[in-house]
Amino acid sequence: MSEQLSYVIITPYSLLKSRTGGIISRLIARTGLDLVAARMFSPSAALTREYANAITSDQTPENRRIQELIRDYILERFGPDARTGRGRRVMMLVFRGDDAVRKTFSVVGHISPGRSGGETIRDTYGDVIMEDNGSVRYFEPAALAAPTPTEAESRLKLWARYSDSDGGVLENVNAFPEGQTPQRTLVLIKPENFRFASGRPGRMIDHFSKTGLYIVGIKLHQMSVEQACEFYGPVREVLRTKLKDMVAAKAKDAVEKDFGFALAPEVVAKLGDVLGPAFGDNQFENIVRFMSGRAPSECPEAERARPGSEKCFAIIYEGIEAVRKIRDVLGPTDPSKAPPGSIRREFGSSVMVNAAHASDSPENAKREMDIIKVTDNDFKRVIESFYGKL
């Protein structure tokens, strides 16, 4: 079986109702496919029209009536709101692997009245309610996926052509009370959550949804050594100084045990002065290796800007007091000190392997977003590298 690309579009309503995490969890865990790209879109009228027109086809297992329902749904719900002119949020996920289209479509599921039980994404999050006369009273597909490889290719190419103009970090898609200024903050769902196919990344997004904030940007990111060094640069000096007392105490215990005599306090202090910075530098190397796949000392200068081997989700949330709300749900750096129900308590295991990172101030959020560059169009690069130039 040859490799394929498949996609899933999470609808504006699923995003609004914070069903995003549950959908992502099922897609990653149940397909076993490699998630290779993610991008937010605010579809223009032109993209909405082209995508809707591409839905109806004689070469698909979905019946014509369902195709027409999906087409009409896209025309009504994807483009800018006719009353306010405000764009709508759509999330596009791209998967790669053997038989990817069939696997993805089977997890998303077919649309049919009366289905229940939660076997597929549409069973759980979608709805089609019929009147007695056979007309449709309510329709929500929850997520959209191509049923055939040919349609997956044509539709991915379509979205890729619009991915610069209609995608990235979205503007003017959320309304806020007059006089209140929203913030934006960055979340990184860390590499340990992508080591094997699991629902962990989606379950964390579910936890973050408790904040009531809106996702306006998302990127599947592979941090380079250069980016990791810049991102965690402020931590380095803290590690060099903050850990001196701990290092001095451990060195004192080791020396006294091996040599059999007590060290004077001034000698212990000197041990901290000498060993503390070296230990801090070693810890910094470990952080960079954990986030990018290689420590700075292991990476030639010419390769430092290359994408690393480790994946993470970079997500931008928008809303009132976004920084504080995300940090409250995340919990403190040390998972053992995090309160029950927090992300780090539930998913973290150590100070470094602590599930996720979140900006600690609006200023740091801006600095970190500039480093990660969520606006970069990795989505288009993935499509072009697989199918060729558009």
Which features would summarize this protein structure in a list?
single chain, Alpha-Beta Plaits, elongated, four-stranded antiparallel beta sheet
N-to-C span: 25 Å
Q: Give the number of helices.
A: 16
What does the overall shape look like? Answer: elongated
CATH class annotation of the largest domain: Alpha Beta
Question: Which band does the percent of strand residues land in?
Answer: 15-25%
The CATH architecture of the largest domain would be 2-Layer Sandwich
The helix/strand class is: alpha+beta
Record field, number of beta strands: 10
What is the mean pLDDT? 92
Major beta sheet summary: 4 strands, antiparallel
Order of helices and strands: EHHEHHEHHEEEHEHEHHHHEHHEHH
This entry's quaternary arrangement is single chain
Radius of gyration over C-alpha positions, nearest whole angstrom: 24 Å
In the predicted model, the low-confidence regions spanning at least 5 consecutive residues are none
Q: What would the CATH topology of the largest domain be?
A: Alpha-Beta Plaits
CATH superfamily of the largest domain: Nucleoside diphosphate kinase-like domain
Spatial order of the strands forming the largest sheet: 2-3-1-6
Residue share in helix: 40-55%
